Amino acid sequence: MNILAIDTSADETSIAITEGRRIISNGVYSQILTHTQWGGIVPSLAKRAHQERIDLVIEEASKRFLKAKGEKKERKTTYLNEAMKSIDCIAVTYGPGLAIALEVGIQKAKDLAKKYKKKLIAVNHMEGHIYSCFAQNSKGKPDVPIKFPYLALLISGGHTELILLKDHLSYEVLGETVDDAAGEALDKAAKLLGFGYPGGPIIERLASGVKNKDIYKLPRPMKKSPDLNFSFSGLKTSFYYMLKKMSEKEINKNAKFLASAFQEAVFESLLIKTEKAINQTGVTNILVGGGVVANKHLRSYMRKLAKRHSGQVIFPPFPYLTGDNAGMIGIVAFYKAELGSFSKESQIDRTPRLRLSEKAVG
Amino acid sequence: MKTLSITSNSQKEILEETVSQLRKGGLVVFPSDTVYGLLVDATNEKAVQKLLKFKNRPAGKPISVFTTWNQLPHLAKVDKLRQKKLHELFPGPYTIILSSKHKTSLLLESEEKTLGVRIPNSRLIDELTTRYRKPITATSANLSGNSPHYSVSSLFNSLSEKKKNLIDLVIDAGTLPRNKPSTVVDMTKEKIKILRRGDVGLQENKVNISNSENETKRIAKNILRNISKEKNTKAIAFIIRGELGAGKTIFVKGIGEHLGIDNIISPTYVVMYEYKTSHKKVKKLIHADLYTITSPDEFKHLGIKEALEKNNVLCVEWGEKAGEILDILSEKTHIVYVDIKYLNQNKREIIYTV
Question: Where do the coiled-coil regions begin and end (chain B) (predicted)?
Fold first, then answer.
C-alpha cells in the first residue's frame, strides 16, 4: 500500500510517499534557514512558506517516488499525476501544532483526496515521532523487528512526553511536560548565553568542548516528584538568575561550562523519569523520537540506561527522521489503514493541542 | 549619522553601538516603551547642551533621565515611603519627579532643583542602562512644543537638515505602538500629584503578592472572575509582561484551570495554541507567546483578530511586544495588563491594570 503523507505542523513543509514501514521518497522544504534571523519559528513566515512551497514539495516527492520505482516512462503530465496512479491513500497531520500551519496541510490533503478520489487518514504528529523509530529506507533497511511493548520518550522543541505502547496505535501517556519542552529549554538557554537559533545543537557543541562537565550543579527539576511528568521552566529560571549575577565577561568566559551544566540538568531529568517509567512498567525496550535525539551525548546516555536494564533502545535510523517529517506520518497511516481507520473529509479539523490520549478521528 | 534596525541588527550590536556613541557624547534616537526618545549621557555637560540645542528647549524646562534601581538613590532623594511607591510604579510608563542630588547635568533639572526619573518597562532600555552604568536622558524625540513621534520616518520628516546633522545614531524599531507619553508623577511633596496623564493612572493598579505557583494561579483565577463579572460584552485579553522565568505561563495555567483546561504548556515553539474550554460562557482560550516575534508584520498572520469573539479569553505572554495589535485588541476586547515581577525564588509581585 502506497501512502502520500503531509506534515505542516510547525516550520517544515514535508511530503513523503511511503509503503508500509518504508519511506520511498521524502521531500522537506526546511524553513530553518528562513527563520534563523528570527530566533524561532515565525508563524506568518511558516504559513506563507507552507502555502508557497507545498505544491513544489509534493512535486519533488512524487518525482523521487517515480525514480525509486524505476519508472522512466516519458511524462506527459505532472509527476504528481503519474505518482497518484500508484497511491492508495492520503495521510495528514491534524495536530498538535500551530493552527494556521496545520490548516495548510489539511486543506491540501482534502483537495488531493477529492481530486484523485483517495481515502484520507488523519494522524497525530506525536504518533509520527514514535513511529519514526520503525522507519526503513526504500530498500527496507534497517530491518529491526517490532516487538511490543515499548516505552517511547518524545523530546523536541514543542514536546516532551513519555508513552507506553502495548500494541500498534495504542498509547498510554505516562508523563509529559507541565510547562516548557526539553528542546525549548535548550533553545532558551542558548539564547540567554547570547547564541542563535536553533540552540540545541549549539549547546551540544559547547558542552562537548568541555567534555560535558557539570561544575555549576543546577537543580534537577521534578527529581523528587513521584509522577512521570517533566518540568523545565524552573530550571530555566534558575539559570537566568544565575547568569544575572555574573558579569558579561564571566559568562562569555564560561559559556561552555554553563551550556554543559544546563544540558546535563535537562538530560538527567529525562533519564530519571525514563528510568522511573522502566521500573514502574517493567518495559525495558525504549523508543526515543524528536529533535533532541539528534544529540549524540543524549544517545549515549539512553543506550547506557537501556543496557543497565538489559533492554534495547531504538532511535530514528536516519538523521532527517529526528526532525519534523512526513515519512513518519505515512508509516503511522499504514498501520491505521490496516485497521481500516480512515477519516471522512468533514471529520478532519486542525487540533492544535491534540493529545495522544485522544481518540483518533474517523 | 548611522542607522541600526531592531529587525536586522542583533541586540548586542545595537547596545554596543549605542553605548559607544553615548560615551563619545553622541545624540541617539532610540525606541522606548512610549515614544521615540533622544538619548545622551545625562552626566556629560556638552552632550546635554547638544540635546537642548536640538530640541530648542528653553533652559529651566526639565528633562528626565532613564536610570536603574542601583543608580536611583545616588541621583535623587528617595526615602522609604517613596521607595515603596516607586516599586509599585516602576518599571512602567511613568516619570517620577524627585528632589535631585545634582549628580546629572544641572541643565536637566527644573527651577525647583528637581529631577524626573524613568525606569521603563522595556527590555532594551533596561539592558542599555544596566550596561551604560550612567543615567541617560529620556526626553521624547521631537522639538519643543511639537507632538512626539512613533516612527523614525515621521520624526525625520519634521526635521531640517541642520537638525538631522546633530543626530549621531538612530535605532529604528519601526512604528511604535501608540502608547501615550509617560504619566508624570510629582513625589517631591508629601502629597503625590499627577502632573501629566499618559495611558495609565495611579489608582487602578492592583498589587498582589504571590508566594508560590499555586498562589499565582489563584490570583489569576480571581482576576478573571472579577473581570468577567464586570466586563462581559467583549473578549478579555490579558497582556502579560515579565522577565524570563517570572511565571507568565503559570499565570495562564491559572486562567486555564478556571476554564476547565488542565494541559496548558508553553506555546513558545509554535507561538500560539488554542484550547476549547468546558466553561459555560467562554468558548476558547487562546494562549500566545510573542517571545520569538521580532517584526510587527507577523501579527497579521496570527489569526488573533478572528479569535476575538465575545467571551473568548486571550492570554499574550511577552505582551510588551503586542504593540502593533493593541489597537485591534482595545477595540475588540477588554484589556487587562498584568505585570509579574520576580522578588525571590518563590515570591512574585503581580500587578494588574484594567
Answer: none
Q: For the segment B211-241, what is each residue's pLDDT rounded down to a tens digit? A: 899 999 999 998 898 888 776 778 899 999 8
Res B9: pLDDT: 84
- Element holding A252 (H helix, E strand): helix A248-253
Q: What is the pLDDT of residue B136?
A: 96
- Residue A58 marked as a ligand binder: no
More confident residue, B242 or B146: B242
Look up residue B100 and give its three cell numbers: 535631585
Sign of CA dihedral A257, A259, A261, A267: negative
Average of per-residue pLDDT values in chain B: 86
Mind listing the domains of chain A with CATH numbers?
2-143+320-347 (3.30.420.40), 150-316 (3.30.420.40)
Query: Which domains are present in chain B?
Result: 2-196 (3.90.870.10), 206-353 (3.40.50.300)
Write the pLDDT tens digit of every residue in A40-61: 555 545 556 788 789 888 998 9
Q: Which of A187, A251, A353 to mutate to test the interface with B (most CBs of B within 10 A)?
A: A353
- Spell A69-94 as b/e; 16+ CB within 10 A means b: beeeeeeeeebbebbbeebebbbbbb
Half-sphere exposure of B268 (CA within 13 A, CB side): 27
Tell me the residue type at A295.
Answer: N
Query: Is the pTM value of this prediction over 0.80?
Result: no
Q: C-alpha B235: how far from its chain's center? A: 23
A242 and chain B in contact, CB less than 8 A: no
Yes or no: say if A256 and A205 are a contact pair by the CB < 8 Å rule: no
Which pLDDT does position A184 carry in this prediction? 94
Contact A233 B245 (CB under 8 A): yes
How large is the angle between the packed helices B123-132 and B11-23, nearest 10 degrees?
Answer: 40
Burial (CB count within 10 angstroms: exposed 0-12, middle 13-18, buried 19+), residue B84: exposed
* Residue in chain B lying closest to A236 (CA): B245
Does B200 have pLDDT greater than 70?
no
